[in-house]
Automatic annotation (TrEMBL):
Zn(2+) binds at H120, H124, H130. The lineage of its organism: Bacteria, Bacillati, Bacillota, Negativicutes, Selenomonadales. This is Endoribonuclease YbeY. Single strand-specific metallo-endoribonuclease involved in late-stage 70S ribosome quality control and in maturation of the 3' terminus of the 16S rRNA. The gene is ybeY. HAMAP family: Endoribonucl_YbeY (MF_00009).
Length: 155
């Protein structure tokens, strides 16, 4: 899987270990869902101010959020990149500030929260949603299954 990571925020440190966690989560999701090696996804790390603007612009919500996913061809087949086996999935935007607050609130480390948000965003790119209780349960089960495969648990 082709993974492009852009750190557009300067308020928090994005460590090599955090980067490896993000890559491991995306690669495990690619393995579980049988994505080709040519599949491409980008991760954009931002601060609360940046994600607030995106959330307002694209979702009409006047609050910061933790993660946003922008599928390249939402509702359509994934975009092909000069190769029938290649897919551009889209972008996952994560606020490191919000992730840090949530990690503290939930009583686990930032790395675990970053893993969860990365996977949550990836599942949205793959068509999962949580608008209904049934969808929420299905998505949560997928999240827990994949994270457990990496030894990342809520404990």
């Amino acid at each position: 899987m082709e993974i492009i990571i852009s750190n557009l925020q300067e308020k928090m440190s994005f460590t090599p270990q955090m980067e490896q966690t993000v890559i491991a989560v995306l690669n495990k999701a690619a393995e579980v869902y049988g994505l080709s090696e040519q599949t491409e996804v980008s991760i954009v790390l931002v601060d609360d101010e940046y994600i607030f603007e995106l959330n307002r612009q694209y979702r009409d919500k006047d609050v910061p959020t933790d993660v946003l996913s922008f599928a390249l061809n939402e509702g359509d087949e994934p975009a092909i990149i000069n190769d029938p086996a290649a897919m551009l999935l889209g972008d996952i935007v994560i606020s490191l500030e919000t992730a840090a607050r949530q990690a503290e609130e939930f009583g686990h480390g930032l790395e675990r929260e970053l893993a969860y948000l990365t996977l949550h965003g990836m599942l949205h790119l793959l068509g999962y949603d949580h608008e209904t209780e049934e969808e929420r349960v299905k998505m949560r089960n997928e999240e827990e299954y994949i994270l457990s495969q990496l030894g990342i648990t809520r404990d």
